[in-house]
Amino acid sequence: MSSSLFGLMLVSEGAAGAPTSPFEVNFGLFFWTWVTFLGLFLLLWKFVWPQMLAATEAREAKIKQQLAEAERLNAEAKASVAEQTKLLADARAQASTILAETKAAAEKERSMATEKTRAEAEELLARARREIGAEKDRASAELRREAVDLALAAAGKLIGQRLESAEDQKIVTDYLATLGTGK
Asked: Per-residue pLDDT tens for 87-114?
């Protein structure tokens, strides 16, 4: 019986403390809900909130540090790219200068070789002309001697005596010389 009485009391207390309509407010429940909420809020405010705030600030500082490091690395990378671009432009300029110098040196060398070949050809031609002139002079002198000898032989046959003296040769040579200048 006592258990049925206890069960009945609970049912009657529950029925007495519970609102009968959805628009009815139970001030005891309302009061203790607010006290529990404010107590929990104060505990969180005192102990949890500072730790959350410190963790958030530490994370924010770490993110700012990482952003600053990223900006520094980005600036270094841009400076490195600019330096590499400058070095590449300098290298290209140097290469074009070296190429131009090489072309100029090759052109100069070719010009010098051409000039040397031309000079050698002119010298060879001049030497050949001198040799031809000397050979022509020798041939003319030989021809004159033979002409003098023939003229003396022919004159000797006409006269009937042999003409071989130096004076006779001089007369014929002088005559042939006047014939050579008369041309």
From this structure: 999 999 999 999 999 999 999 999 999 9
Residue for token pair 């029925």: 15
Structure tokens at 7: 């069960």
- Of 152, 153, 159, give the one whose Cα is nearest residue 173: 152
Supply the pTM of this predicted model: 0.39
DSSP string, 73-122: HHHHHHHHHHHHHHHHHHHHHHHHHHHHHHHHHHHHHHHHHHHHHHHHHH
Question: Residue 173 in 3-state DSSP?
Answer: helix
164, 152 contact by CB (below 8 A): yes
Q: Is 90 exposed, middle or buried (0-12, 13-18, 19+ CB in 10 A)?
A: exposed
